[in-house]
Each structure stands twice: as structure tokens, then as C-alpha cells.
């Protein structure tokens, strides 16, 4: 006769701290790290059973894959500084050889150099639109685009409509749109504003930088980007509590009896019930998850309205691992583009020191919607066929195949980050980072410089920590 052991549940914990951070992604961990170095007692509550947020590395069928964010570009000084501090090495993305482009006419072109192999007229239009976007990005800037005199004008017209107002050349419009809509915001160009597009460009220094894959996708971290969060978490030790999804945040008047501050309760995860009482809280999760928490009292009306105008994009990040990087044998870099293709971008994503070859491809927005309606095998077949159109039939048979689907992740629900709908940025942008009483906000979705990137997450984490440290007095 066998006896089943009763399930054990962690005992409820009550913790007092100076600051409680919700979310152990790069933003939350940078906030906690900065606060801890300044002498604050910090507790970090993370819903998942891992750190890293939207950065995640895993081994799938024997292949190391970066399932989440991974790129480092030369302008990302906050990230580069942290990598140096943590002793992390980087390596360049493979880019030797020719690139591949499939035009809207379906013709495949192998080319070298910076310019796309399109007609002289189309190329001239791409350059002209790029100059206009570069000028707007420089004039409006990434920090306060909503404050510019033209903010409302640019925010109440879709990027698609704006592009068509600049040029009648469909291929030029599609190419420019690819690098902001499909490549970055991962939403259809009709679903966000021209101002949101300008912010995306300004956050990277210019639209020209977004067009330059050798700049924006320059390097990767040896051991994966998640290892950066893991290193920060290791420094914080037991201050990081995993498996602790936050359900309730009491603040201000609700805690008048204990001198103000916050009381945060996490429950329903592997950590059991954890309650943290602190002077301040930093919410370091994407804005689309703010509403997963019950606030007592409720957040102000302005916050409720703003959060309803922010939403995640959708992208399938496809990983295909081959016995060898066969494209290199054919003189190709693995870099491919096709604005009208199912897989609009492909890159050589081979790991540092790996003899095998890895390709990464991206299927965005409405194309991703259509694919997710299919059975997994049909989806795989169509995706690999699209890559094979770019790189040949050897692409059809990878040893390892994996699709990163962040839209199904309970604690993310989309990718790469949240952005405003039409009209939302100029209307609510100034309120995104404004603390509500003792509650501060930090994530890549709120960044100016480094918007949607790990660099922006780190900047926002440091900024939130500095806000907290700037006022150490108890909340009345």
C-alpha cells in the first residue's frame, strides 16, 4: 500500500523593506541594484520562476537559443557600461558576404553594399523619406516628443497614411515601413501614429540607424542577454523572490495607520504568499500588465485612461539551427529582407564558438495573426518555405526549429514592447513616468533613448531608483 505525501506549501512571509520592486527584468534589477548600492533595503518580487523578463535564453533540443531580446548596438551606452562592469564579453553578428532582397514583384536579388537593389527612382524615394524622418527625429527627440508643437498633428495620423502622403512609390513606402512597423513596433503601420514612428527613430539616434542592420543589430552577449539579469540578481541574492506574482498594491491613504508607503502582496505562485511593506514601490513590468494588480485605493483616472491606450505588438521570432551555416559557403551573410514576404527579415544568429549555423527570422503583426491560426506543422512549413525563398532549399531542413511566442507568455503577452494607439502618445506620454504617490514606474516601454530595448529598460530602472533616492523621507 502506497502513501501519497501531502503537498507542501511555503509558509506566508511578511517582509519590511525600504523599496519593493515588482518585476525582475533588466529594468527592475537595475532599479534594485542602484538602490541597494545606495544603502536601501530592497525586495524584488518576480512572477516567473526566472529573472530576465523579456530576455530569456534556453537550450532547446540541444541548441542554445536567445528566445527574447539579444542585440547590442554602439549607442546603447547604459547597457555597454553595465556589460563592462559585470565583465561580460560581446561578439559581433556575422555579416560577411552578400545580402538577399525579394522585391514586391517577387524577384530575388543578391546584393552588396548599403543600398537595396531597387530601381533608381525607388532608392531615391527611400533616401528622401529617410531624410525627412531623420530631420523629424532630430527636431522632436526621444525624451518628450509629446511636447513638440507638431505633436498632435503627427500623432493623429497613422504612419501608413503619413508615408503615403510622402511618396506614391509603393516599394519605397513598404521598405521604410518595414523597419519601424514590422521590425520594431511589430504592429501594422495603420495602427500607430507618425509621432510614435518618429519616437522609434529618435530613440535609436535616427531613422538611418534603424535602416542600418550593422548598427542596430551589431553585437550579442556571450552567454546570452539573460545572463546580464542573472548577474544582477546574483548580486542581490535573497532579495530577489521568484514565483511571486503581485496581486495587490496598497498605498497612500490605505496605509495611513502605518505612516504611508506601500504594502504589496504576492500570491498564487511557487513562493506562496509574500507581503512586503515598504516606503516606495517600483513597478518594473510592461504597462499592459499594470491592470493585473489591484490597487487600494485605485490609481488616478489619468492612469486608468493611459493604460488603455498602450498595447503590445506581436511577432514570431523564428530560430532554425543547421548542421553548418550553409549560406556562408554560398558567399551570403544570412541577412535577408522582403517587405512583402511572410518572413520579412532573416539574420545569421550563430552562437559564439558554435560550429552549427543558426538563422533567426521574424514574422510580424497581421502575418503573425494569420500564422497562429494554423496548426503548428503548417506554420513551420510556411515559415521555412519563406526562408528558403531567401536562402535556398537547404533552409527547409533545420536540425532544430523553435518559435518564440511572447504573446502566449502570461507575464508579457506580446512583443517587443508596448506602444500607444493613434493619438495616445501626445495625449498621455507626459504621464507615463510620473510617480503616483509612492509608486514609481520603470520599463523599456517608457524609455525615450533606448525605447523598446534592454538599454532603455536599464535607463528607466536607474531613473526610477534615482527618483526614490531623491526623496528618502516617509510618505505622509
Could you explain the architecture of this structure?
The structure is a single chain. With 476 residues, the protein is of the alpha/beta class. It folds into three domains: 13-54 and 225-299 and 436-469, FAD/NAD(P)-binding domain (3-Layer(bba) Sandwich); 56-74 and 89-114 and 215-221 and 314-415, Polyamine Oxidase, Chain A, domain 2, CATH 3.90.660; 117-211, Guanine Nucleotide Dissociation Inhibitor, domain 1 (Orthogonal Bundle). It has 16 helices and 24 strands. A seven-stranded mixed sheet has the order 9-8-19-20-21-18-22. Helix 2 (77-86) crosses helix 16 (454-469). Keywords: Oxidoreductase.
Name of the level-1 CATH class of the largest domain: Alpha Beta
Count the DSSP helices: 16
Kindly estimate the percentage of residues that lie in beta strands according to DSSP.
15-25%
CATH architecture of the largest domain: Alpha-Beta Complex
How many domain regions?
A: 3
Structural class: alpha/beta
* Helical percentage: 25-40%
- The largest sheet has its strands arranged as 9-8-19-20-21-18-22
**Mass-distribution shape:** globular
For this structure, the CATH topology of the largest domain is Polyamine Oxidase, Chain A, domain 2
Which stretches of 5+ consecutive residues score pLDDT under 50? none
Distance between the termini: 62 Å
Number of strands: 24
Q: Largest sheet at a glance?
A: 7 strands, mixed
Amino acid at each position: 500500500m502506497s502513501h501519497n505525501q501531502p503537498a507542501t506549501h511555503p509558509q506566508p512571509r511578511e517582509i519590511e523593506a525600504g523599496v519593493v520592486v515588482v518585476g525582475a527584468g533588466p529594468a527592475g534589477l537595475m532599479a534594485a541594484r542602484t538602490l541597494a548600492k545606495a544603502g536601501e533595503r530592497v525586495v524584488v518580487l518576480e512572477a516567473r520562476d526566472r529573472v530576465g523578463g523579456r530576455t530569456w535564453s534556453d537550450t532547446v533540443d540541444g541548441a542554445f537559443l536567445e528566445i527574447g531580446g539579444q542585440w547590442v548596438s554602439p549607442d546603447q551606452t547604459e547597457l555597454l557600461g553595465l556589460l563592462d562592469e559585470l565583465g561580460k564579453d560581446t561578439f559581433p553578428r556575422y555579416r560577411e558576404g552578400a545580402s538577399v532582397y525579394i522585391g514586391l514583384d517577387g524577384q530575388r536579388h543578391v546584393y552588396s553594399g548599403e543600398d537595396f537593389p531597387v530601381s533608381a527612382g525607388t532608392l531615391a524615394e527611400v533616401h528622401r523619406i529617410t531624410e525627412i524622418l531623420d530631420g523629424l527625429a532630430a527636431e522632436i527627440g526621444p525624451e518628450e516628443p509629446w511636447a513638440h508643437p507638431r505633436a498632435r498633428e503627427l500623432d493623429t495620423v497613422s504612419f501608413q497614411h503619413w508615408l503615403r502622403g510622402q511618396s506614391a512609390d509603393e516599394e519605397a513606402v513598404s521598405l521604410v515601413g518595414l523597419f519601424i512597423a514590422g521590425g520594431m513596433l511589430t504592429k501594422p503601420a495603420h495602427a500607430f501614429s507618425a509621432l510614435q514612428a518618429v519616437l522609434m527613430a529618435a530613440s535609436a539616434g535616427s531613422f538611418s540607424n534603424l535602416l542600418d542592420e550593422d548598427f542596430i543589430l551589431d553585437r550579442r552577449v556571450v552567454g546570452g542577454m539573460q545572463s546580464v539579469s542573472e548577474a544582477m540578481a546574483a548580486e542581490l541574492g535573497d532579495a530577489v523572490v521568484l514565483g511571486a506574482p503581485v496581486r495587490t498594491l496598497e498605498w497612500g491613504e490605505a496605509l495611513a495607520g502605518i505612516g504611508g508607503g506601500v504594502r504589496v502582496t504576492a500570491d498564487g505562485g511557487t513562493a506562496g504568499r509574500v507581503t512586503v511593506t515598504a516606503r516606495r514601490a517600483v513597478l518594473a513590468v510592461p504597462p499592459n500588465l499594470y491592470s493585473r494588480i489591484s490597487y487600494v485605493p485605485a490609481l488616478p483616472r489619468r492612469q486608468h485612461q493611459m493604460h488603455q491606450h498602450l498595447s503590445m505588438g506581436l511577432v514570431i521570432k523564428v530560430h532554425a539551427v543547421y548542421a553548418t551555416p550553409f549560406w556562408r559557403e554560398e558567399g551570403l551573410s544570412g541577412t535577408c529582407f522582403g517587405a512583402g514576404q511572410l518572413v520579412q527579415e532573416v539574420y545569421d544568429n550563430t552562437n559564439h564558438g558554435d560550429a552549427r549555423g543558426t538563422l533567426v527570422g521574424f514574422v510580424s503583426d497581421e502575418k503573425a495573426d494569420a500564422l497562429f491560426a494554423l496548426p503548428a506543422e503548417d506554420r513551420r512549413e510556411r515559415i521555412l518555405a519563406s526562408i528558403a525563398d531567401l536562402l535556398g532549399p537547404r533552409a527547409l531542413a533545420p536540425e532544430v526549429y523553435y518559435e518564440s511566442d511572447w504573446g502566449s507568455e502570461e507575464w508579457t503577452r506580446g512583443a517587443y514592447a508596448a506602444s500607444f494607439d493613434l493619438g495616445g502618445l501626445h495625449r498621455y506620454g507626459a504621464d507615463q513616468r510620473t510617480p503616483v504617490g509612492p509608486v514609481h514606474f520603470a520599463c523599456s516601454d517608457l524609455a525615450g533613448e533606448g525605447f523598446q530595448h534592454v538599454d532603455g529598460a536599464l535607463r528607466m530602472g536607474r531613473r526610477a531608483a534615482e527618483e526614490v533616492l531623491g526623496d528618502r523621507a516617509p510618505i505622509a
